């Protein structure tokens, strides 16, 4: 697993504390820790690619020539991360360093999230892709009877998941799952076709 993190030239590359606080880096470490027990037959390595702003400027013209389309700052930002990741040049995070960071994140989350139970600090942040049409099939299967409804996937939640939810969760937990994504995007993600799109339809009606 390769994760790219950008930082200012004033930050010491050898001082890893500030680098690991990047939202992308933290999310990648959490995902990495979840994939280890899910796929123990694989050998996983976490490669941290730390890029100074000066390095981005050095390669800016070359990266711009490779991007298509190049219509926004976001196009450049995404392409730049891919370009540095493709080089595969970084530092290999040791298992102990990853475990320590993961433990600190769990402690911080429990202390900040007073409205949820302590178990929610261990909720899985990694979600797996699904095939096209899976949501439609799920809705057809669940519409026949409510008794087949599955429990919400979020640990510590006793509610039932709603058919078609991409997170297989209840309305409340679906919003919780989308929170970090919305924070990263800087706007409401509105990813769920069940909880978000239905609300859009009601609002329009």
From TrEMBL:
This is Uncharacterized protein. It comes from the Eukaryota. PANTHER family: ASPARAGINE SYNTHETASE DOMAIN-CONTAINING PROTEIN 1. Keywords: Amino-acid biosynthesis, Asparagine biosynthesis, Glutamine amidotransferase. Residues 131-141 have a biased composition (Basic and acidic residues). Residues 131-153 are annotated as: Disordered. It comes from Skeletonema marinoi. One of its GO terms (biological process) is asparagine biosynthetic process.
